[in-house]
Amino acid sequence: MTASIEQVSGKAFDFVVIAGLVLAARLSEDQDKSVLVLEAGPANLNDPLILTPYLFGIHYNNPNYDWAFQTIPQETLGGRSIYSGRGKTLGGSSAINFFQFHRPSKSHIDAFEKLGNPGWNWDLFSKYFDISTNFIPPSEESEFASHDHSNENGPLNYSYPMSYSGLERPYHQALKSIGIDVLKDPTIGTWITPVTIDPTTKTRTYAANMYYEPNMHRSNLVVLTKAHVTKVNLKTGSNGEVTATGVNFIHGEDTHTVEVRKEVVLSAGTFMSPQILELSGIGRKDVLGNAGIEVILDLQGVGENVQEHVYSGTSFELKGEVQDQFTTFDCLRDPAVREKQTELFAHGKGAMAMSFASMTFFPLAKATPAADDMYRDLEKSISAGIAANRYSQGLQKQYKLQLESIQRGDPVCEILMAQSYAASPNAYKKIGTAESIDSGTTLPEPGKKYITMSSFLNNPFSRGTVHIQSSDPLQAPAIDPHYFEEEHGVSASPRRACQIEPSAGQRRSLRGNINRRRSISRTGC
């Protein structure tokens, strides 16, 4: 059970962890240290809307699960504000994500160390990835699954999808015809990614049920939900050193305080961590001054250097004569079919046992013959920005690594194949209905099946910001990703290069199954 407010308010703990459930569980392994977790959302433990795999996406814009952030209007997107969901529940976004579970490229992890973070490298990342996970082989042999997973006995169970749609093979053949290899392990190519689903229980595995629930009996691990942190209390010593002494938070209608004996660990995510720092008096002097907050520590990097990947999704309607050959999530909109699929799911079969798991990563050169021209344009644009003193020294180092990554042929572009009508996450907010909360997305036709290919730009050069708008801790931060602003004006930008899914859709292996292109929608991710 999670704690009551009486067990927390006014008390002192060795560690106060803001939202970081996994870290809190690890810290509590030392029985001599008391650990408190403050979670803004509800517990939602044993919640079928979280645990049931085929209900992914149903949580979006639901305040019981989702912060439902919106960006400020983006000039480069015609003034659109982009939905940016984040988990607001015990377990955070691991409770509402789409299950894909694969490692990033080695070069991207090593880049953290090159930027001045000793120990943030591939070797240590791989070591602790293996320690933290437990691979469960699929019960049936599949041409898409790799059994080359040495990690076992970690807390987080994962496996491959229990069921497939039949579209995976023609999709992979289409990509192979344009020079992208089919692999069983994620380097450069297309493959089926593992997912955070336990095939034995047929449920989602995430931070709450893999790290907290097995350890909730620990007397030194205390978790309080619906605790919205408003600030970290700070003390400045005679030597100018700033120390955290406790945390203020809202629970119900009242503000409470807890004291900390050792450390406050702030792990509230990309959007809320900057907000809490700034509300506490740590951040850019001008931002804090505009919000009427006393500056404790003028720290210029807070809320800066936000890098957000974006995608463009294209949905294709399957031809009527082949619709019976493939299984897609679209069939779940029919109540009668849904009932039959529920019976199949009990045996790990059918649409409800599928996942969005067909992933493809590839270098810019695989996307377009104009890759060299794009690289030169980007290099020229960045050099001009450096000459004009537009970039900090830190950002210049990042851009140098990004350009090297493109030139080296790292997988900077991505395609996801979805077995459904899914031009944007909101298009399948409620599987089993035709409801859409994105007015720019047309609804799927009843009785039809679709395949969607979404192209991602994973390493944009544009950088955004996340800052408080006022001293009100309940007001959402101003999120400004600056989508495409750095790429804007480049004659052939990578955002166009990564949109190759229509080309793949016209390849013979898929063309025979596709009737027409149905919709295109672009959003942030």
UniProtKB/TrEMBL annotation:
<feature type="domain" description="Glucose-methanol-choline oxidoreductase N-terminal">
    <location>
        <begin position="269"/>
        <end position="283"/>
    </location>
</feature>
<dbReference type="GO" id="GO:0016614">
    <property type="term" value="F:oxidoreductase activity, acting on CH-OH group of donors"/>
</dbReference>
<keyword id="KW-0325">Glycoprotein</keyword>
<keyword id="KW-0560">Oxidoreductase</keyword>
<comment type="similarity">
    <text>Belongs to the GMC oxidoreductase family.</text>
</comment>
<dbReference type="InterPro" id="IPR012132">
    <property type="entry name" value="GMC_OxRdtase"/>
</dbReference>
<keyword id="KW-0732">Signal</keyword>
<dbReference type="InterPro" id="IPR036188">
    <property type="entry name" value="FAD/NAD-bd_sf"/>
</dbReference>
<dbReference type="InterPro" id="IPR000172">
    <property type="entry name" value="GMC_OxRdtase_N"/>
</dbReference>
<comment type="subunit">
    <text>Monomer.</text>
</comment>
<keyword id="KW-0285">Flavoprotein</keyword>
<dbReference type="Pfam" id="PF00732">
    <property type="entry name" value="GMC_oxred_N"/>
</dbReference>
<dbReference type="GO" id="GO:0050660">
    <property type="term" value="F:flavin adenine dinucleotide binding"/>
</dbReference>
<feature type="domain" description="Glucose-methanol-choline oxidoreductase N-terminal">
    <location>
        <begin position="87"/>
        <end position="110"/>
    </location>
</feature>
<protein>
    <submittedName>
        <fullName>GMC oxidoreductase</fullName>
    </submittedName>
</protein>
<feature type="binding site">
    <location>
        <position position="229"/>
    </location>
    <ligand>
        <name>FAD</name>
    </ligand>
</feature>
<keyword id="KW-0274">FAD</keyword>
